[in-house]
Amino acid sequence: MNNYYELLDLKPIHSEFQLFKAYLKATKIALKNKDIELFKKVRQGYEVCRYEKSLLAYHRIFKKTILKKNLNYPAKKEEELINTYQAKEIKAASYIDSFNKQLPSYSSHLMTIILKLLLRDITRIIPLGQSGILFITVGLYCIISFPNETNTIGGMLLILLGLFFARSNFKMYINQG
After folding, report:
1. How is the chain split among helix, strand and coil, in percent rounded to 5?
2. Residue-number span of the structural domain to which 120 is assigned
3. Which of 50, 49, 48, 10 is nearest to 26 (CA)?
4. Residue 138 pLDDT
5. Which member of 97, 116, 146, 149 has the greatest number of CB atoms within 10 A?
6. CA 21, 27, 30, 31: dihedral to nearest 10 degrees?
7. Residues 86 and 130 in one domain
8. For the chain, first and last CA: distance in Å?
9. Among candidate residues 97, 114, 137, the one where a domain is terminated
10. DSSP state of 51
11. Which residues of the chain have pLDDT under 70?
């Protein structure tokens, strides 16, 4: 059993943001060193820890296996808990296997994650324009973190798109009230 808390430098009780930040930090190290096994473990830890059901199952087995606490689970319940978090590990492993032993660069992996967040954010309907806030944040991040002409233009477009969403969502919220 992998100790994902240690691998990601997380406490058992953590926020979604802390998990995401720890995942990016560990991913950066793995991709910089071109270590596919570490990247695979980091991705597995992220997949297990980001979903409440698999995190709870993992945490219970973690207490028994790593911390050596006596939890007195029936064998069937323990097997069910193990299967719950191992399903997420398998999902992460298949994601890594899709790279065919050639890892992406950190910046391309980061952009993939950011695009997925943007798509998730677009599909949500949140009052007061909060969906625009993510576009603005990502745009600023692109401008600050990757200071070249292409990323600056892309960041500015994301900021404009964020302002558009924030404004239109705010108007929609005001008209409902």
Report:
1. 80, 0, 20
2. 106-176
3. 10
4. 79
5. 146
6. -130
7. no
8. 52
9. 97
10. S
11. 99-101, 118-131, 167-177
- Type of residue numbered 148: N
Per the structure, the count of domains in the chain is: 2
* Inter-residue contact 34 to 103 (CB < 8 Å): yes
Picking from 68, 44, 50, 59, the residue whose alpha carbon sits closest to that of residue 12 is: 59
* 53 shares a domain with 121: no
Write the pLDDT tens digit of every residue in 137-164: 778 887 877 777 777 888 888 888 888 7
Whether residues 40 and 119 share a domain: the answer is: no
Residue listed under structure tokens 């793995």: 30
Report yes or no: 106 and 32 within 8 Å, Cβ to Cβ: yes
CA 70 to chain centre: 32
